[in-house]
Amino acid sequence: MRAADLIVVPVIPSPLSERALDEVTRHLGGKAKVPLMPVHSMVDRRRKLHAEALERNPDWPVIPMASIVESMASRRAPLGAFSPRSAGAKAVDGLWQRIEQRLARPGKKK
Question: Which of 2, 23, 68, 74 has its CA 20 to 30 A from that of 107?
Answer without folding.
Answer: 23
